[in-house]
Amino acid sequence: MGNSSVNYRNLKNGIIACLVPLPSILFYLSFQSAINGDTKSPSFLWTWCYHHPLLLANVLFFFNVNFLFWFISLIQYSHWMIDPYWTVIPVMLVHYYSSHPVAKEYDWWRSRMVMLLTWVWSIRLIHNYFRREKWQWGAREDWRFTDMSQQYGTHWWWASFFAIYLPHQVFLIGLSLPFYVIHSVNKPLNIWDLVAIVVCVSGIVIAYIADTQLYNFASRNEELKGIGKPVVPILDKGLWYYCRHPNYFGEQLWWWGLVLFAWNLGHGWTFIGALANSMCLAYVTKLVEHRMLKQNSRAEAYRLYQNTTSVFVPWFKSSPLELKSKDA
């Protein structure tokens, strides 16, 4: 593919990605204008939107993300857009919950700290996405989606709606439930807010370091391959020395840190979103490791890595001698 066609695709996908959230944004601005305006008796639609902020978020997500993203994917034959928007939607949701007309009684400082943290998390993750994709919009879709398309065959065009987009609504709305609680409960800051901040920041930092180490590892292997030298089979340096998926561990810390904010406000039930995401990530981890073991050049080294290194939580390595004594 020539540079001109790559540049055209990059520009086209960038424009699509910037325009696609406009329906929800314009609808929400119209709703706010109607509620805050001089209209003494808002229509039934605006009244419903006012009294049901959580349901409204789900409705907008269903039509603007699930349906519209899916429709665009059918035209482009690629489900690339949900990946960068995984980093954008939580930012939109935290601002939505904070600016909704019904959100009047909440602690301003807690709200702004969570907003700032969400922006930092989003910037880190979207930077990692574009760095990995060589600063292109929609260069490829997630390999897991490609594998699923081969499994579903001719049914993939409709099955993708249920396999990709509906689950993302469950995860992203569920993970963002603490944002809703933070902007619906007024309670002074206390020590648990500080603990939640530390957990969130730790998650962001760990994930950033782990992703940077992974990016440098992959870049170095590309250089080695380019000059005809053997590549390094696995990454087991830095944070990757202490666990096999430190980037996933950092990401989970971030989401569970948000749960701490909500738990401190008396709404510990919001853990359901983080729990569902952790369970899904455990399954994704299994897929990633199975994929590694299918590569002949890496299989033997990765099996040893599995036997000596913790999966998620960073911990001390088990030595091969310890493994032999256990097997004896």
From TrEMBL:
Protein name in the entry: Steroid 5-alpha reductase C-terminal domain-containing protein
PROSITE patterns (UniProt xref): S5A_REDUCTASE
Keywords: Membrane, Transmembrane, Transmembrane helix
Transmembrane segments: 14-35, 55-75, 156-182, 189-210, 254-284
Presence of keyword Nucleotide-binding: no
UniProt organism field: Canavalia gladiata (Sword bean)
Stretches assigned to coiled coil: none
Pfam families given in the database record: DUF1295
Example of a GO cellular component annotation carried by this entry: membrane
Organism superkingdom: Eukaryota
UniProt KW Transcription keyword: no
